[in-house]
Design a protein that fits this description.
CATH topology: Undecaprenyl pyrophosphate synthetase
Distance between the termini: 16 Å
Oligomer: single chain
Radius of gyration: 18 Å
Bound molecules: farnesyl diphosphate
CATH class: Alpha Beta
Largest sheet: 6 strands, parallel
CATH superfamily: Decaprenyl diphosphate synthase-like
CATH architecture: 3-Layer(aba) Sandwich
């Protein structure tokens, strides 16, 4: 079965660090390595879109020190990884309400997203200050504005209109949604886009997620019967 779009909730960095008596940031740093490896593996499997939940709108509630270290890590990772990713054919895309980030980080995100790889192989969507409910609300606000100012009719407001005004409007729906770290929640990730995704909840902590873990998910996915509400035959 074709996999166009793989989405991952990368959970378990903090616990991974705690198991090693290290600060939580140590786990996030190790998580960057898993991001790098997963991008490589996604390319080798011919996946076209990879969405990663890097920072939810709720993550601002973490201790201020952890949030600021994560912001530093985002800045460093963008600086360090973008050129190599572009060489590999990766186009970066940041989704979420970016306005809340520092000017420095916003500028880095915009600059990284503006880089065009010579050959397009994989689009990596990094979700930051993102929430699936926020995404739906921002589309609904656009609808309200178009109704007030541009004559959008109620009957024109259908699933297709909505799809076209959400983040990732030009991308296929999520085929596989993986959450690492042993919790069974979607935690407000791509709610609309994952409506028919196959869900995989893995016990492995994100820094330990490797190519074998991904292969195991892909093998199980092949065994699943995606019916999209229809019957098999
Ligand atoms: C969840 O683990 C992880 C995060 C909130 C941050 C994710 C960030 C990275 C993997 C690194 C940077 C990524 C990019 C794309 C540059 P947790 O802290 O909730 O772990 P816990 O559940 O064990 O506490």
């Amino acid at each position: 079965m074709a996999i166009n779009h793989l989405a991952i909730i990368m959970d378990g960095n903090g616990r991974w660090a705690k198991q090693r008596n290290q600060p939580r940031t140590f786990g996030h740093q190790a998580g960057v390595k898993s991001v790098r490896n997963t991008i490589k593996a996604a390319i080798s499997h011919g996946i076209s879109y990879l969405s990663l939940f890097a920072f939810s709108s709720e993550n601002w509630n973490r201790p201020q020190k952890e949030v600021s270290r994560l912001m530093d890590l985002f800045i460093k990772s963008i600086d360090k990884e973008t050129p190599e990713l572009n060489t590999q054919g990766v186009k970066l895309n940041f989704i979420g309400d970016l306005n809340r980030f520092s000017d420095v980080l916003q500028n880095k995100m915009h600059a990284a997203a503006a880089q065009e790889p010579v050959q397009h192989r994989l689009i990596v969507n990094i979700a930051v200050n993102y929430g699936g409910q926020w995404d739906i609300v921002q589309a609904a606000r656009k609808a309200a504005i178009q109704m007030l100012n541009q004559g959008l009719a109620t009957e024109d407001l259908d699933q297709i209109w909505f799809q076209q005004h959400l983040m990732l409007s030009d991308q296929p729906a999520v085929d596989i949604l993986i959450r690492t770290g042993g919790e069974y929640r979607i935690s407000n990730f791509l709610l609309w886009q994952s409506a028919y995704a196959e869900l995989f909840f893995e016990d492995v902590l994100w820094p330990d997620f490797d190519e074998q873990c991904l292969q195991s998910v892909l093998d199980q996915y092949e065994m699943r019967d995606r019916r999209f509400g229809r019957i098999s035959e």
